[in-house]
Design goal:
With about 350 residues, the protein is α/β, with parallel strands linked by helices. Helices cover about 25% and strands about 15% of the residues. The chain has a seven-stranded mixed sheet with strand order 2-4-3-5-9-10-13, with helices on both faces. Strand 11 and strand 12 form a beta hairpin. Helix 2 runs parallel beside helix 5, helix 2 runs antiparallel to helix 7 and helix 5 packs across helix 6. It is globular.
């Protein structure tokens, strides 16, 4: 039960560099000087969490809206690389465990079954993607979410050993209509958190205001006998090509701080693309507390995602998972190693996932 494992998932790592009342922001880029201390941290094993939602009553059928009434609503996988091997040349991603906790909580609030994997090498990432994709052949749900967090190099994702992974060729294409028939016509959301270059966004010293997004005309699609190879994709990158992605060592990445805040507040009544517009506004207001006053812009790519998507979170789930105040005000932290030995935790989450897919 999520209610009983909420604290167990908390992994805000104690860090001697964190100063009281000061937010320390880092980037997910490779350090220019390899000052890497040896990591004596066990690879976090697979953790499965499951939640069951209930269909919304009185749902109106609309060909311009993606159906979101299955139980569960969909399946979501979170891959977080936080502890990098010394030879990789990358520092640990302090604060990434906060993202995992908040995202798992959010996805369960939205009615998704959630699979969490941490600290994976390249082959393990590919195997996890293939196994996750296979679940959609065996379980009928309405949506797929894949969330990957790591460092980046040369515009690519890197594994815990520092090897680069071409996300487009090695991950996204696996979910195209030609390679994943079970998800044809169903929404697929990819949330990607890693640096896509080494440039810092220092902003400009010019006052500006956001303008409301212009209304988008509804697409009029004729009935056709074939689907394009790629449809129903939304890909959200935490930053734009060439730039770093910022992460707070205590509160997690800027992008997911904003995403969780906006989704928790608006998922009951707002379309997903409208929520991404809201995230843009919230993220634009953030800047680092150092003298550089860094900024950040995220990017959403639409590939044939032409319908509205409302998550329709269950009212019961809203009461259980919709309130984050307990987590925000809790100062207790445990290391990843301590987290894994808590009695019965891994057994509970694995049994929950098996109950869903069997």
């Amino acid at each position: 039960q999520w209610r009983h494992t909420n604290k167990e998932l908390r992994g805000m790592e104690r860090n001697n560099d964190v100063i009281d009342n000061v937010e320390l922001d880092e980037t997910d880029a490779k350090p220019s000087k390899h000052n890497i201390s040896g990591l004596d941290q066990e690879t976090v094993k697979n953790e499965y969490q499951e939640v069951q939602g209930k269909p919304q009553s009185g749902k109106v059928s609309d060909t311009n809206v993606y159906p979101m009434s299955s139980t569960p609503r969909g399946m979501a996988m979170i891959i977080n690389n936080g502890a990098f091997q010394p030879q990789s040349g990358f520092n640990p991603r302090h604060g990434s465990d906060v993202d995992v906790q908040k995202l798992a909580n959010l996805f369960q609030y939205l009615g998704f079954a959630v699979l969490v994997k941490q600290d994976l090498a390249q082959a393990e990432i590919m195997e996890s993607i293939d196994d996750f994709k296979q679940q959609f052949e065996e379980t009928i749900v309405d949506m797929c979410i894949v969330c990957i967090m790591s460092h980046g190099s040369g515009g690519n994702l890197v594994d815990i050993q520092g090897y680069e992974i071409d996300v487009e060729e090695e991950i996204l294409k696996k979910f195209y209509n030609t390679q994943c028939p079970a998800l044809q016509g169903k929404p697929k959301l990819f949330l990607l958190q890693y640096c896509r270059g080494g440039e810092l966004d220092l902003g400009v010293e010019v006052p500006s205001e956001f303008r409301d997004a212009l209304p988008v005309d509804k697409l009029k699609l004729q009935r056709i006998s074939k689907l394009p190879a790629v449809t129903d994709f939304l890909i959200a990158n935490s930053t734009v090509p060439g730039f770093v992605s910022n992460r707070n060592m205590k509160y997690g990445t800027w992008f997911f701080q904003c995403l969780v805040e906006v989704f928790k507040e608006n998922a009951k009544h707002m379309d997903i693309r409208d929520m991404f517009d809201q995230i843009t506004r919230v993220l634009n207001e953030k800047e680092s507390n150092d003298s550089s006053r860094r900024k950040q812009t995220f990017e959403v790519t639409n590939r044939g995602f032409y319908k509205k998507l409302y998550f329709n979170p269950d009212e019961v789930l809203d009461e259980e998972y919709g309130n984050d105040e307990e987590y925000k005000n809790d100062d207790d932290t445990v290391s990843d190693k301590e987290e894994q030995i808590k009695k019965g935790f891994k057994k509970r989450v694995r049994e929950a996932w098996k109950a869903l897919v069997n």
